[in-house]
Amino acid sequence: MDKSILFVGVGGQGTILASKILTQGVLKAGYDVKMSEVHGMAQRGGNVSTQVRFGKRVYSPLIEEGTADVIVAFEKSEAARWISYLKEDGSLVVNNYEIYPITVTTGNEKYPENVNEALKNTVKKTIIINAAEIAESLGNIKAQNVVLLGALIKALELTDIDWEEIVKENVPSKIVDLNLKALKLGLEA
């Protein structure tokens, strides 16, 4: 199984952590893995993208336009922004969540309307998840990244890996239980 996964979101959403957990999981499963991350203006609410490629043998972490098997979007307009990276028969996992950029909050631009519908009309395999709502129901919206990761794991049929152990290794002990619950709900979503 050779897969190219593009994670896209906004700074502070946990995009990089989700990518690292995926990377460690598939590495422990015996795959060759490469990961690359771009922070941009992440600490200022800018976009963040990480690229994870795994398979029998991977030479580069970089995903070219039109070659991603899956895009995981932590914010729905980011899905629209990066859609050109998805291969024709690829899958899109989208958090049904909006973060307004400064240009929208100042009134200079409008947030795009009907993003989910446009994505579904463009990509046959589109999965919309209310990851932020699920995380908030657990008491912490920051767990939305692990909810999305759970959905991705299910979509990739990688459920035979010990993801609980990998989550425990990657999050602070005080929030392990929260993240394990988020992972479970993401797998179910």
From TrEMBL:
The keyword Oxidoreductase applies. The keyword Cell membrane does not apply. Pfam families: POR. It comes from the Bacteria. One of its GO terms (molecular function) is oxidoreductase activity, acting on the aldehyde or oxo group of donors. Keywords: Oxidoreductase, Pyruvate. Residues 11-188 form the Pyruvate/ketoisovalerate oxidoreductase catalytic domain. This is Indolepyruvate ferredoxin oxidoreductase beta subunit.
